[in-house]
Amino acid sequence: MPATGNIVFNLRRKKKPILGIDISSTAVKVLQLSNTANGYCVDHIGVTPLPDGCISEKIITDVEAVATSIKSAVQQSRSKAKHCIMAIAGSNVVSKVITMPKGLSDAELEAQISVEADQHIPHPLNEVNIDFNVLASNDQQVDKVDVLLAASKTENITTRVTAAELAGLQPVIIDVEAYAIETIYPLLAHQVPGGGDNKTIGILDIGATMTSLNIMRKGKTIYTREQDFGGSQLTAQIMRAYDLSYAEAGYAKKHQQLPANYADKLLTPFKQTAAQQCNRFLQFFYSASQHTAVDHIILAGGCALIPGLDHTIQNELQIPVTGIGPLEKITLSSTLDQDLLEREYSSLLLAFSLALRAFE
């Protein structure tokens, strides 16, 4: 899905402190930041697994189960925040860049977009939430501006709001995952040799069931794509190969308690498959844009912890690949669960991004 801009579905005026909450297919991750003189401090973090089946294709199907996991993650974090920022998947959002007359006030622009939206959104307008963001002047028409229009079915938003409220929280923003990553990009760019300001950078997040690629240029998302692929496929292979339950296979994988032939039999082929999936992502990007190269890939998600995966992907893509490292201008509270942060750090990119929204 081509994307750029800063889309949020605002629900009410923001208040602090605010939790960033990432609801993935397998876990709820909550993170709270505070502002410091030199940047931000991670004050609270919590991660709680989700029961099987309560998320389907990034859509909440069991609100109460998700609410229970949110409440558990917040309790684990020891945060007292009562407000939160959440996100919906880009695959559940329809976005389109449209041209509008230059010089309209916000109220005039909103009224005009309400009229235009029906032509661009493949759902009845009474079934969607809509937001928009003015991008820039149109290159071809000097009296026009480009506007990013985004819409998502209302149920995608209300299920998240309801789950948060059942957990005792008040959502203040529902963001879009792909756009939220723009928020954290300035804290990531220093990990690219020479800086990322004038380079085309890919942020590759390989999670448990979903892989996403965000292509960034000058701090803005120019392309994003999601695909069903992740570490759960390796877990399932372990389960079948060694006659384990899914939970036992996941534990054995996480704690490296597998037979000696595991690396050659399962892990190496999985890494090669992951690299091939990444290559396909890039080919889709090249075919959908004027770009023909990506300068650097930052690897995130739970699978970023797999030893050697970054090198396997680098060899396949012939592009420098580095695992996500420490974020710039981020310090850690002395009361933080350091072991939890170390275990989950690579999968907290979206939670970080949403927590940062509180300071915009």
Q: What is the CA–CA distance across the termini? A: 25 Å
Uncertain regions spanning at least 5 consecutive residues: none
What is the overall number of helices? 10
Percentage of residues in DSSP E strands:
25-35%
Largest sheet: 7 strands, mixed
- Could you report the average pLDDT, rounded to the nearest whole number? 89
In short:
With 360 residues, this protein is of the alpha/beta class.
Please characterize this protein's 3D structure.
The chain has 360 residues and is α/β, with parallel strands linked by helices. The chain is built from 10 helices and 17 strands. A 7-stranded mixed β-sheet has the order 1-11-7-2-3-4-17, with helices on both faces. The chain is globular, with a radius of gyration of 21 Å. The two termini are 25 Å apart. The mean pLDDT is 89.
Write the layout of secondary structure elements.
Elements: E1 8-10, E2 18-23, E3 27-36, E4 39-49, E5 55-56, E6 59-60, H1 63-77, E7 83-88, E8 94-101, H2 106-120, E9 128-137, E10 144-153, H3 154-166, E11 170-176, H4 177-188, E12 200-206, E13 210-217, E14 220-228, H5 231-241, H6 246-254, H7 262-288, E15 296-300, H8 309-317, E16 321-323, E17 330-332, H9 338-344, H10 349-356
